[in-house]
Amino acid sequence: RLRPVAPQDVRVTDDFWAPRLRRNRDVTIPAQHAQCETTGALRNFARAAGSVGGDFSGRYYSDSDVYKWIEAASWSLATDPSAELGDRLDAVIKLVAGAQDTDGYLNTYFSVDREGERWTDLVVRHEMYCIGHLVAAAVAHVRATGETALLDVALRACTHIAERFAPGEVPGTCGHPGLEMALVELYRTTGDERWLTLATWQLDSRGAGVLDGSEYLIDHEPVRNQSRVTGHAVRALYLYAGMADVVLETGDAELRAALERLWADLSGGKTAVTGGVGARWDGEAFGDAYELPDRAYNETCAAIAHIFLAWRLLLLTGEPQYRDVVETALHNGVLPGLSQSGTEFFYQNPLADAGRHRREPWFSCACCPPNIARLLASLPGYLYTTSDEGLWVQLYIGNQADLRLADGTTVRVELTTGLPWRGAVGLTVSPAAPTEFTLFLPVPGWAGDDVTVTVNGSAVPVTAGSRQVALRRTWSAGDTVELTFGTEVRALVAHPRVAATHHRVALARGPLVYCVEQADHDAPVAAIRLRGTEEWAAEHQPDLLGGVTTLTTAGTAVAVDDGPLYRPYSAVADEAQVSVTAVPYYAWANREPGEMRVFIPLASR
Amino acid sequence: RLRPVAPQDVRVTDDFWAPRLRRNRDVTIPAQHAQCETTGALRNFARAAGSVGGDFSGRYYSDSDVYKWIEAASWSLATDPSAELGDRLDAVIKLVAGAQDTDGYLNTYFSVDREGERWTDLVVRHEMYCIGHLVAAAVAHVRATGETALLDVALRACTHIAERFAPGEVPGTCGHPGLEMALVELYRTTGDERWLTLATWQLDSRGAGVLDGSEYLIDHEPVRNQSRVTGHAVRALYLYAGMADVVLETGDAELRAALERLWADLSGGKTAVTGGVGARWDGEAFGDAYELPDRAYNETCAAIAHIFLAWRLLLLTGEPQYRDVVETALHNGVLPGLSQSGTEFFYQNPLADAGRHRREPWFSCACCPPNIARLLASLPGYLYTTSDEGLWVQLYIGNQADLRLADGTTVRVELTTGLPWRGAVGLTVSPAAPTEFTLFLPVPGWAGDDVTVTVNGSAVPVTAGSRQVALRRTWSAGDTVELTFGTEVRALVAHPRVAATHHRVALARGPLVYCVEQADHDAPVAAIRLRGTEEWAAEHQPDLLGGVTTLTTAGTAVAVDDGPLYRPYSAVADEAQVSVTAVPYYAWANREPGEMRVFIPLASR
Q1: Which one from B367, B368, B515, B517 is the annotated catalytic residue?
Q2: How many CB atoms lie within 10 A of CB B227?
């Protein structure tokens, strides 16, 4: 079992990520506070407190926008202290606290004129879900600041739920999971086993008809029996992440076995090449196995939920496959959700588009924008883990960290890297005193066997196929490790069962998935054909799309004629030579609208 | 301009179709009457009349289920007189008439407790749509029986609408089109120009914000300006069919030009190989051009609407391309919507499935089942048209018909055919007296240039590429025409812009599109690969799926390994020889559940 590190112990200095985290702090988080003001989500709390009148604004889950903003702001404060943000945060928390009922209940929708509707519809209304975000925000706030004002609110709300849906007595769970994860965090923060018990009870309340037995709401069978990832993607993955949290704390073997089956189903046939998940637009849902179309829904929140689940399974097992998923989903499933400006967002992340899908400043269901903000603000917490054996690097993102090992040793680590563009990583490891421990370094799946490792300049052999290098030695201040990873362009095909991308390749290099956009081509993107075996030229273009490495090759373009929509197979169109340029998928739709494709057809002949 | 013939003038004797029409009459129509009783749709009329109490059952458009049943029953009565069905029909019509308000208003949802909500929401509620189906039913009933009881109800309802949304004064149109077509039929039936004016007014009320300017509801611009097929597929095609009806009666050049642009968009990039339309499950809507995925929505009603539109454009232009669409959509877009039993239905008709999509006896939104029933009951009316020049065969379906030409000559036609299995057609043409006229015989697109024609045993030359043979001569009783059409198996690919079916072929033979089902294979359907150029053996199997011609060839099956979901292009799986069997797509999902595919991948190497 691995342990996470606190975000505030890690200062991101990375050329790629540090500007993004700054933008999150300086632009996105303030803009989202403004959105919560504009939409009335903040005002709803004043209304519930009785200090203003008028109607409720938004939806029955609008409170969660505010809670996610608090969480994002708290993690930001943890790594970048700011009196201004601290004051703003305190004001919002005061507003939230003021809206809580004396019995602990808190949801501003079910206040004033809708008090009678509380807990009348667990299926549709998101009361527990919202409290989940309250708890997550409260935990972040207390960890960032040591202040317990919001934690007290969260504890009262959870006490209310624990009494209303008492473990062992009254089955209770929510149409939208989320509280399960949060309750385990509350247990970790407070040490009060009540919350772990309540989380487990919420999980085991499923499959008994509380949610009408709906498969869409993952209530069709007890979670312990489940094997097939189904239903609303974000709900399903929040639920599984909550299961993983319970397993982390209890070791529950039955839940763990269910998680292994569910992960096999998810990773084996229901994950986009970008780490996006949830193929169907109808219902924002998982499709059948191998149903991986170009027009995938791939909700930004689902990619975040995918990270939540993979991270917990990483903590549980230490297996590098899970950090690969975190890395892929972060770069290619979440990052596309954010515009270069930091103020516009994708809800859906399809793998192809005709040019009409564009990022927007906010949504009537605004789950994704603050979800991105809170993930980015907490990103420093995803770079390392520790264990009894030593220190594990998980994401190769440049940083300076002051970490504490299991035995209490403090270690300063400096990590520099050219990723995601260049496969070079340098570490300086400086324990407070010379100490023997293992430094675990993942070999990303994308590097294959093209990897070198040196310690203080001496090469370390790496076993072919190995996905992790474990360097056990007595480390002394200033010890250095250098790694190189191959960044050859990979032309990827999907499993032969996947029909939608048959005879097409997706391009990837390092941790990034690429796409072709109309802005880089004269020929229609739809006409571009590859051979799959071509050589690609990678060139860094600092002035393009905030600085990206483009990939270029000689491909072909078929004639896109005006002929009939269906024609005999023999009639293959002529092909012309064209230059093909691919850009990182995360950067798409930041130029003029036009066609985009991740999977590029291979020539038919 | 072509003219349709009355269904009752044509007796279908076809080996393929006659049993289906009998099943429609003997099984489907009675079963749907029972459904209208079970769901309370019939009872709603009694409730509105005040003869029973209780709550309204179903949705605000449930009346349309009953109207569609009346239409189906009426057309059935037209071709197959039945005292029992006539009595049942009279009883239902009496029920409908009793529910009408004195001011002509009729919708049982907006009755009793909801009278105050009438005409308050043109966007969502389907008040005009329901009246459209009432009118269509009334027209069918009067044409079948000569009785005007229901026509009187329809006229009062339309008068109410014409007063409430007076042409030139109050813009009025419905979120769900349908009334437009019906009003033109009412004009044709009554000769009263008021209904043509009202139909045109409803069309021209669009684009002015009556429906909030919604693109989904095709209110984003005046219909005269439209070029892009968009929004809810059934609504869009009902609307365009209404436009075509107005053009047929008025010759409106602007509307006609819009229809030509819209048809080019529809046929050029938004039609499935089956004639199904409306690719998106979210919103039952059209996708972007060339968005033609395996998991297409292809609502059965949309295929019917596609036939309505194509038929009207055929009447307008006489161009054989439109009868090809009617034929394709009928065999492959509508027929799959019906089970072999005649009592279960598909709402969606995807081009691939993992085995979970099965037909159901009814739906909470039950638009499709009675839509199939009314189309099949009226099918005899789609076999011929007439014009000033003579007689046009449109669908090669075996029948005996007594038709009247423009000059009043009556002609008995007997048509026999082995279609859809064998490409042989024989006609005996017997005018009451020897008469000179042209017999127009389409050369279906699927036959290519593999066509022969003889008249009284003498060969008639057919121009290469010709899609129609026009036989002008003096016809005498007993003259015979024999046609043969090639029924080579066609391996079809989609336009090169279509990514979803890249390097895959759909099989077709004659008018039928085929698919592969798991029931015929040991290897997973997903593993099957073709070369695109193989020879197929066609074999008629009278005991399979009600009697079908299967297609068999030697293909390959790739290894469906447990490897990663994404892998380098070079790693192509090994292939084994397998026998591949295809069955008509219309017959799928009538055996044990299993995977189905229309587009079969071609081998990668």
Answers
A1: B367
A2: 13
Q: Name the residue among A356, A559, A601 with its Cβ closest to that of B502.
A: A601
CB atoms within 10 A of CB B408: 8
Q: Token pair of B73, please? A: 């029953």
A291 CB within 8 Å of a chain B CB = yes
Provide CATH code, domain B39-205.
1.50.10.20
A-chain residues within 8 Å CB-CB of B524?
497
- A465 touching B (Cβ < 8 Å): no
> Across the interface, do A565 and B495 touch by the CB < 8 Å criterion?
yes
| Interface check B542 vs A, CB under 8 A | no
Q: B515 catalytic, yes or no? A: no
Average pLDDT over residues A514-529: 97
- Asked if the Cβ–Cβ distance from B563 to A495 is below 8 Å, we say yes
Closest CA relative to residue B156, chosen from B112, B92, B100, B199: B100
Set of chain A residues whose Cβ sits within 8 Å of the Cβ of B497: 524, 526-527, 560
Buried-state track A65-74, b at ≥16 Cβ within 10 A, e below 16: bbbbbbbbbb
At residue B561 the predicted structure's pLDDT band, cuts being 50, 70 and 90, is: confident
Say if CB A402 and CB A9 are below 8 A apart: yes
Query: Which is the catalytic residue, given A367, A368, A517, A595?
Result: A367
Contacts of B604 in chain A (CB under 8 A): 502-503, 602
pLDDT, one tens digit per residue, over A234-291 is: 999 999 999 999 999 999 999 999 999 999 999 999 999 999 999 999 999 999 999 9
DSSP A232: B
Residue the block writes with tokens 């006896």: B361
Mean pLDDT across the stretch B580-600?
Answer: 98
Mean pLDDT of chain A: 97
Query: Rounded to an integer, what distance in angstroms lies between the CA atom of residue A490 and that of residue A511?
Result: 11
Which pLDDT tens digit goes with each residue over B53-67?
999 999 999 999 999
Do B566 and A533 lie within an 8 Å CB cutoff?
no
Residue B574 pLDDT greater than 90, yes or no: no
Q: Going by CATH, does the domain composed of A210-351 fall within 1.50.10.20?
A: yes
* Predicted complex ipTM: 0.95
Question: Of the CATH numbers 2.60.40.1180, 3.30.230.10, 3.90.550.10, 3.30.420.10, which one belongs to the domain with range A386-485?
Answer: 2.60.40.1180
All structural domains of chain B with their residue ranges: 39-205, 212-362, 386-485, 490-601
Q: Is B295 on the interface with A (CB under 8 A)?
A: yes
Residue B229 has pLDDT above 90, yes or no: yes
Strands (E), B280-434: 352-353, 384-387, 390-393, 399-404, 410-417, 424-431
CA angle (B185, B189, B195) in 5-degree steps: 55
Can you give the pLDDT at residue B573?
Answer: 67
pLDDT at residue A562 above 90? no
Picking from A492, A569, A604, the nearest residue to B569 by CB comes out as A492
- Window A:550-569, CB contacts with B under 8 Å: 558-569
Band of residue A314 on the pLDDT scale cut at 50, 70, 90? very high
Cβ A437 vs Cβ A392: under 8 Å: no
Q: Do domains A210-351 and A386-485 have the same CATH topology?
A: no
- Helix axis angle for A193-204 and A149-164, nearest 10°, is 50
Q: What is the mean pLDDT of residues B319-332?
A: 98
Q: A462 at the B interface (CB within 8 A)?
A: no
Residues 6+ positions from A61 with CB-CB distance below 8 Å: A109, A126, A129, A130, A176, A365
Smallest Cβ–Cβ distance between A496 and the set B495, B496, B558 belongs to B558
Nearest-CA neighbor of B298 among B350, B259, B338, B374? B350
Pick the CATH number of B212-362 from 3.30.420.40, 3.40.50.300, 1.50.10.20, 3.40.120.10: 1.50.10.20
